[in-house]
Write a structure and sequence with these properties.
AB_hydrolase_3, EC 3.1.1.-, single chain, Rossmann fold, GDXG_lipolytic_enzyme, AB_hydrolase_fold
Length: 328
C-alpha cells in the first residue's frame, strides 16, 4: 500500500453499500420524494427540520436555558448536565449544532445534545448561534467564539473545570468548532482541551472520490453544499479566510487534540479526512473514525440506526478518556 492510498482514501475501498437501518430511512425519503435542500429553499428546510419528531433523548440531571454575552447581543445557550457529571469541576464541551449555517436550533438539536452529554459525561453548552442568510459570515463564527469565552468566564458558576473545556459540533457546527480552535490559538484566547467533530464542514465542495460517489445522497448533495456555503460565506471563494473555511488555514500546528467521526458514504468524507491528516502531520493528536454504511448526519440518527448509537458511544468514550487523561 502506498502513502497515497493511506492519505487519500478511495471510496471503492469501502464500497457504497448502506447500513440496513439507513436503507430504511433512504427508502422512506425516496417514497416521499424529498427534494434536495437547495430546491426546497431556506424556510422550507428550516420548517422541515424543526418539525421532525424524535424520541426523547437521555435524561439529564439538569437542563438550563441561559444567555451568553455576544458581540451583537445575548446568545441563547442550553446547558445539559448529565447524571454522571459532578456538581462542580465537571468537564464541558461548548457545542455547535449542524444545519449548514442556515438552519437548526436548540430545540431541533436537543436530542443530539443529550446524546453527546450522556456519552461523554461532560456538561454540554449548546449554542444557538445566528444563521444565514439573515446573518452572514462572520456572525455565526463570532457567536461561537463568544460562547467559548463566556463559558470560561463563568466556569465556576456552571460547575465546570476551567482546564477541561472543549469545543465540538456536527456538520456546520463541527466547522465552527474547528474555526473556534484556530481563532483561540491565533488570538491567545481561552484554552481548549479538545475538539470533537462529527463530519465537520471545514471546506467548500471539492472534486473528490467521495463527492463524486455520494454527491447525490438523499442526506446531502453537492448542490446543497454549494448553496449553503454561498449563503453564509458568499459565492467568491477567493474571499474566504481560515475561520470561515478552516481547511485553507496555512498552519494547523498548536491546535488542541481532535476527534473526528465521518461516515464512509458521506460526500464530505475525503475533505474531512484530509483535514484530519493535516492535523496529524502538524503534530496534533488526532483520532479519526470512519463508520461504514452511514452518510452525512448520522449522529442525529441514534434513535433508529444502531451504528449511529455505536458511533456515539465510541466517540463519547474517547472524549471522556481525553478529559480524564489530559496531556500537556
Amino acid at each position: 500500500m502506498t502513502q497515497q492510498d493511506i492519505t487519500t482514501p478511495d471510496a471503492s475501498r469501502d464500497g457504497s453499500a448502506w447500513d440496513p437501518d439507513v436503507e430504511v430511512m433512504i427508502d422512506r425519503m425516496r417514497s416521499l420524494d424529498v427534494k434536495p435542500s437547495w430546491q426546497r429553499g431556506v424556510e422550507a428546510v428550516r420548517e422541515s427540520l424543526e418539525s421532525i419528531v424524535r424520541p426523547p433523548g437521555p435524561e439529564m440531571a439538569e437542563v438550563v436555558d441561559a444567555a451568553a454575552d455576544g458581540p451583537h447581543g445575548p446568545i441563547p445557550v442550553r446547558i445539559y448536565r448529565p447524571v454522571q457529571a459532578p456538581a462542580t469541576g465537571a468537564p464541558a464541551l461548548v457545542w455547535y449544532h449542524g444545519g449548514g449555517m442556515i438552519m437548526g436550533s436548540l430545540n431541533s438539536f436537543d436530542r443530539l445534545a443529550r446524546d453527546v452529554a450522556a456519552a461523554t459525561g461532560a456538561v454540554i453548552v449548546n449554542v444557538d448561534y445566528r444563521l444565514a442568510p439573515e446573518h452572514r459570515y462572520p456572525a455565526g463564527n463570532d457567536d461561537a467564539f463568544a460562547a467559548l469565552e463566556w463559558t470560561h468566564r463563568n466556569a465556576d458558576d456552571l460547575g465546570v473545570d476551567l482546564h477541561r473545556i472543549g469545543v465540538g459540533g456536527d456538520s456546520a457546527g463541527g466547522g465552527l468548532a474547528a474555526s473556534t480552535a484556530l481563532r483561540s490559538r491565533n488570538t491567545d484566547g481561552p484554552a481548549i482541551a479538545q475538539q470533537v467533530m462529527f463530519y465537520p464542514g471545514v471546506a467548500r465542495r471539492a472534486d473528490t472520490p467521495s463527492m463524486r460517489e455520494f454527491g447525490d445522497s438523499v442526506f446531502l448533495t453537492a448542490e446543497d453544499i454549494d448553496w449553503m456555503k454561498n449563503m453564509y460565506l458568499g459565492d467568491d471563494p477567493s474571499r474566504d479566510d481560515e475561520y470561515g473555511t478552516p481547511a485553507i488555514a496555512e498552519s494547523l500546528a498548536g491546535l488542541p487534540p481532535a476527534i473526528i467521526a465521518i461516515g464512509a458514504n458521506d460526500p464530505l468524507r475525503d475533505s474531512v479526512e484530509a483535514y484530519g491528516d493535516r492535523l496529524r502531520q502538524s503534530g496534533v493528536q488526532v483520532a479519526q473514525l470512519r463508520y461504514p454504511g452511514v452518510g452525512h448526519g448520522f449522529a442525529m440518527q441514534t434513535a433508529s440506526v444502531a451504528r449511529a448509537r455505536l458511533a456515539m458511544a465510541e466517540v463519547g468514550a474517547l472524549v471522556a478518556a481525553r478529559f480524564a487523561n489530559p496531556v500537556g
